[in-house]
Each structure stands twice: as C-alpha cells, then as structure tokens.
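Sample intake sheet
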Amino acid sequence: MFQKLDTVEKRFEELTQKISDPDVIANQNEWRDLMKEHAELEPIVEKYREYKKVQKQYEDAKEMMEDPNMDKELKDLENPNLIIIDGKTVPENFTGKIRKEQPSHVILVDACLMGCKPGEFKIVDKDDFVNIGISTHSMSLSYFVKYLERDNDFKIIFVGIEPESMDYSDKPTPAVQKGAYKFINILKEIL
C-alpha cells in the first residue's frame, strides 16, 4: 500500500513541475488534463504526507523512550508519590491503572508540532489539541483526556516536545533529546 502511495506522491510531484512548464501551459489541452490529474491526486498526497509526518513524530517519541539513558533518567525520578507509565502508542491501555492509583495529577508527554524550535517543550491546553500535530495513538489524546477526566478529580497536564525532523530515517536529534532531558530535570527539581 505504501509503495503505491509513494508512486502517487512521485507522480503528483512530476505533475506539479509539468503544470508550471511554459511549453505545457501553451498547450491548453495537455495542461487541462494534467491539472485535472493533479487536482485528483492532491487530497490523497496531502493525507499521505500528513500520515508520514505523524508517523515520524511517533517514531521520534518511541526512540526517545527506548533510549537507555532516558530510562536511567526516568528511574532517577522514582518517588513513592510518582508512578511512571510508558504508554507508547496505546496510553488507553493504562486507564485502569491510572484510575486505580487515583493520582492528583497526570502528566502526558508526547512529541507534537507546535511551531517551536526542535527540542522545545511546553504545556499544551487540552482545548488546543486540534491546533497541533500529535503523534499517532490508537485513541486520540483529546478523547483519552476526556475519558480520564470523567468521574475523576485529578489534573491532567499535557507537555508537547517539538520534533526536529519528519524524515523517517532520522533518529531523535540531539536538540530533541536535550529538550527531553531538560524536561526530566525540571521534574526532578519539582519533585
């Protein structure tokens, strides 16, 4: 399936160049046919590119969490008043544990596009989830937060970390890792 989508994306890029070519523009019949094909492919390519961007965010977050140094940093946070759950792409699998523990606060950390510099992080209001790109999960984080809040009094804080690259082949960059470590150090100070 992805191979087909890659082919569609490549064709779309070819069409984009062709419809800008003065020789093609001069031939109105050819230009009209290419414009029609371009318009038909555009929504498919936009969704595919959006998917690739979100998938990359997920990969960045996953690699960051699998970093052995990150595990050590998180273990250093151990505190009887703190539970760390690595929900990966299915945080909803841990709703039972979260509800059972009845925490006063839940802090969700995820890679997301916020228009910041790579590695920067900030608290994102749950009402702003629709305005930012958040990594893929089985359940949308907006719905997940609403589910957790139902019949519970704990405060939910979402912290977004800006990824640097959307290229599948890239690992989390030093800037992104530095941001994650900085966030952990802030938590250490607070706790």
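Comment: The mean pLDDT is 78. The beta strands are 105-113, 121-124, 133-134, 155-161.
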